[in-house]
Design brief:
Strand content: under 5%
Order of helices and strands: HEEHHEEHHHHHHHHHHHHHH
Number of helices: 17
Number of strands: 4
Helix content: 55-70%
Shape: globular
Radius of gyration: 28 Å
């Protein structure tokens, strides 16, 4: 009993390592002497007896009534395991993937002729969504790089990531393309059989996978978190690449989405541990202040400015539109990040949205099939309400993707992840 109390006391001088407690030999002798002195008929024990036996009490001990009493002192909390998930990052991913699904539903409604694509309301909604959703997704991915790379090492990390991304890119590009080819006349984007297998020209959302493969190789080579010089050079290079490609969408894989580079590299430089420290320093009041300021900046630029989005633009590429786009996109990413920190503390919301974040890749791969099916059904039922299409399409895109994953995860796991022989 006494040993257990002594071990668990806040002032214990026990060494804490990997969730196990260890005692030095001298400390163990003191504990045993303490136990002996507390038993009936035992001879008194204390610092004098410890000295006579050649054992010195720890420096933090003091004597009260002949017994060593450990002085109270703060004990540092051990760091979280490297693979521990951060709830607010999962929430941010959940919001990002919801925005991606909503954006595709919105553009699908326009392509179906249910809304005027030139109206100011549509343009503002499209600009607001595409300004931030994929940029937030890129930043969330960048935060995870340092810990994963430290855990696996560069060679294993690259093989696993590149193998996984390449596998699902080829597989799902063909699956989506064949579905669009088979449903020609019912979908907005008809495909020829030749275009389905022209994998160097991604269709729909699939361009993101080759882009993140490029970013994975570059950040593994640069490792910007290792020193200030590496970080500075990496961020300058990423900023130059983003500004040069802002608002542009290249003609083939590996050249699309390069305007997002700065978001990925900044997050990779900060690292998940750095993000956690910054969040802790801000506290609740600081996070609320950041949310208000960044959301206000984002909203004003979307409503009143002419910002170019990272991968597309409605206004043409000018120094003004690129500059406004950079500020607007960063303000949006920071605002959603701050909102994610607050939502993570609301248990029902964090559980639902965080779950979407943990299944974000599943939703990313399958959501276009689910939302296209929803739109086809609603149109055939004669439902032309834009609001119904937006709400139903987004909900079915999210829930339908997860349902498909759940139904196939055991029997067809290769739909969602590359086999082990590919990733190592």
């Amino acid at each position: 009993m006494l040993l257990d109390v002594w071990i668990r006391s806040p002032g214990s001088v026990l060494q804490h390592s990997e969730d196990k407690y260890t005692l030095t030999c001298s400390q163990l002798r003191i504990v045993l002497n303490n136990i002996g002195s507390s038993c009936p008929g035992a001879s008194p024990a204390g610092p004098a007896r410890a000295r006579s036996s050649g054992v010195r009490p720890p420096r933090s001990a003091r004597s009260v009534g002949g017994r060593p009493v450990l002085a109270s002192r703060p004990v540092s909390t051990p760091p979280l395991p490297a693979n521990r998930r951060d709830g607010s990052v999962d929430v941010a991913r959940g919001l990002a993937i919801t925005g991606i699904a909503f954006g595709h539903v919105l553009r699908g409604v326009r392509s179906a002729g249910l809304v005027d694509g030139g109206s100011s309301a549509y343009l503002a909604a499209d600009r607001a969504v595409y300004m931030v959703h994929v940029a937030l997704f890129a930043a969330a991915a960048g935060l995870m790089v340092e810990a994963a790379l430290a855990r696996r090492g560069p060679a294993r990390y690259l093989r696993a990531r590149l193998g996984d991304f390449a596998w699902v890119y080829v597989l799902w590009s063909v699956v989506q393309g064949l579905m669009q080819y088979a449903l020609a006349g019912s979908v907005n984007s008809e495909r020829t059989l030749g275009s389905v297998f022209a994998l160097w020209r991604p269709a729909n959302q699939m361009w993101f996978l080759p882009w993140i493969m490029v970013m994975t190789v570059l950040v593994t080579a640069a490792q910007p978190w290792r020193s200030r010089l590496r970080g500075l050079c990496s961020l300058l290079g990423a900023a130059a690449l983003s500004i040069g490609c802002w608002g542009l969408f290249g003609p083939c894989i590996f050249l699309q989405g390069l305007g997002l580079s700065i978001f990925f590299f900044v997050a990779a430089t900060v690292t998940l541990a750095g993000y956690a420290r910054a969040r802790a320093r801000l506290g609740t009041g600081g996070v609320v202040a950041v949310l208000v300021v960044s959301a206000l900046c984002y909203g004003l630029l979307v409503a009143l400015g002419r910002p170019a989005a990272p991968t597309t633009t409605q206004f043409g590429r000018t120094p003004v539109s690129i500059g406004e786009g950079l500020v607007c996109a960063w303000a949006g990413v920071i605002a959603v990040g701050a909102l994610s920190v607050l939502l993570d503390r609301v248990r029902p919301v964090s559980r639902l949205v965080g779950y979407l974040g943990r299944r974000s890749m599943v939703i990313f791969l399958a959501h276009t099939l689910a939302l296209a099916a929803t739109r086809i059904v609603l149109v055939r039922l004669g439902i032309g309400s834009v609001a119904v299409h937006l709400v139903a399409g987004t909900l079915v895109a999210l829930a339908g993707s997860i349902a498909l994953w759940w139904a196939t995860r055991r029997w067809l796991p290769w739909l969602w992840r590359a086999p082990r022989r590919v990733t190592g």
